[in-house]
Known about the structure:
- The chain has 319 residues and is an alpha/beta fold.
- The protein has eleven helices and 13 strands.
- It folds into two domains: 8-125 and 294-314, 3-Layer(aba) Sandwich (Rossmann fold); 129-288, Dihydrodipicolinate Reductase, domain 2, CATH 3.30.360.
Amino acid sequence: MIDPELRIGVVGATGAVGRVxxxxxxxxxxxxxxxxxxxxxxxxxxxDFEVEEATALALGAGxxxxxxxxxxxxxxxxxxxxxAQAGAVCVDKSSAFRLMDDIPLVVPEVNGxxxxxxxxxxxxxNCCTIPLTMVxxxxxDAAGLRSVRVSTYQSVSGAGSDAINDLRAEDADDxxxxxxxxxxxxxxxxxxxxxxxxxxxxxxxxxxxxxTCVRVPVVVGHAESVWIETEAPLSPADAARILAEAPGLRLxxxxxxxxAIGIDDVIVGRVRADQTAENGLALYLICDNLRKxxxxxxxxxxxxxxxxxxxxYFGQRxx
Length: 319
């Protein structure tokens, strides 16, 4: 459900996720859209939209109902609270607010009801956490989760537009393949995010999750190999049936990376027994990280609020 009267701000509109967000909004029939970016892009055009500078003054004016933020953690910490205090519902893609107890971290197909508990800010999960929890949730409902191991193969678009431009301009040499996450001597912060966010979304704070994340020389699309141990026995055939019926998932026997690019569904397949664990299952998933892994999930959160018929969530709108 959409509300074409919503006054929407897209902050970080010139970036990889921001551009996809803007295109989704236009395609869905929203028209009262303003685009924001850094001072370097201010005054430029994105299609029919003039880019404004993302400043505290502009975002705190109280004339926006919804703001989508794709600007990085540091800037989100500064600007999101200002926009929220001015009355906008802010859906933030950075890691700034995801693990805060009073901020909902939402995947609509998994825990959409949590979005209704917001106080102005809703966190959009990591681009690998979203598809992972969409697969884990229905399997947990069916048989319980005992443990999860996951390896991710993440495209360079997850690192932003500059990384995309680098890959397109140069050969895939070592510097393009370096891991661009923070490393604490044991794990990348990306691996910690995946574990901690999945636990919060699934509301399983003690679930053992082991993650290994790597970048691959691909422009768009994240893939994940997943090994699951369930509490109760669950055959691969039953698991495949459950996944095929789950919202937002598309079951393919042997998923191909290219099949996920440009589509909204998360593709899951290669569902088979893992002989190394009791009640073990192994599977493989692919997701367009700019779409369901980022922009689409954020828009679906907002449309969930609109569909809940709770206009007070957009109470700053002029009558």
